[in-house]
Amino acid sequence: KIKEHIAQVEAFTAATKEEVEDFRIKYLGSKGLLKEFFSEFKNVANDQKKEFGQVVNTLKNAAQEKVDILKDTLENKEESKGVYGDLSRPGASIELGSRHPISIVKNKITEVFSNIGFNVSEGPEIEDDWHNFTALNLPEYHPARDMQDTFFIQTDPDVLLRTHTSSVQVRYMENNQPPIRTISPGRVYRNEAISARAHCFFHQVEGLYVDKGVSFADLKQTLQYFTTEMFGKSKIRLRPSYFPFTEPSAEVDVYWGLETEIDHKITKGTGWLEIMGCGMVDPNVLKNCGIDPEIYSGFAFGMGIDRIAMLLNQIPDIRMMSENDVRFLEQFKSTY
Ligand code: PHE
């Protein structure tokens, strides 16, 4: 009778975990068949005890093994169901990153100028005295050097973090003859107290146009074109100013009272706002860079990207733009 059970146990299969559990209770449960067989042991004749014991043990091992194997295979099946089960389920969505507001504004500015033939030039953030100051008509001990609080890495000879990307324009003129139309976007550094309005680094785009017969009228028209493309219908005004590397020099204000559209977002302005410095390149600067000022003239301009990004996006604190808080960054979706 027990041998029959062994055969049954070995042939047993199950489709569900419940069937396996019923099978386990039937054989191995506390009131199961094995319990019963073991309790019969004392009634078995002495000369048959050995064989009886062996057969019951075989049954027990077979039942236990069967339960283990069936449980295992059923569990595996369930797991794979989780992975392959419902093939019509939508896939996990791919998170797309967003561009940084400074990159968005930089890319827009770059596009506006490349549409009128400006190329993009870049240079090192660690500069020497010549490219950041001296070539730009700021000789040693020139008081205007104090306008830009400089981070020095080394003195004598001076190695420093560039305070403006005008240094890139010097490098460009040293290596290229007119006609020159180039803009230089990049990060610049100034030793200023960090606050909501100022940081020890920020970003600029500076532009340079050198050719025969370039006039102040060309500068003004270029700036009018730029502000219209950048901010929508807009008014600008030029205020006389001073930079050592341009003569004459001016500060450019844009009237922010109009509605401004950048990247499908409308921003309502608040009046005249200073957005950049500009002027006619000083003949000394051209000479310093190997361009003959008797033949060529040019204009230059420079603007801060961070300020513009803050205005356009109503960002209240410049520090937010370098804290890498994803909740801040993911708000900027752009095609630029
Ligand atoms: N380099 C100036 C600055 O950083 C900006 C500027 C560029 C002004 C070119 C005039 C001409 O403030």
UniProtKB/TrEMBL annotation:
GO molecular function, one example? tRNA binding
Any one of the GO BP annotations: phenylalanyl-tRNA aminoacylation
Its EC number is 6.1.1.20
Which keywords accompany this UniProt record? Aminoacyl-tRNA synthetase, ATP-binding, Cytoplasm, Ligase, Magnesium, Metal-binding, Nucleotide-binding, Protein biosynthesis
The Aminoacyl-transfer RNA synthetases class-II family profile domain sits at 105-331
Q: How does it assemble?
A: Tetramer of two alpha and two beta subunits.
Query: What is the official name of this protein in its record?
Result: Phenylalanine--tRNA ligase alpha subunit
Q: What species was this sequence derived from? A: Patiriisocius marinistellae
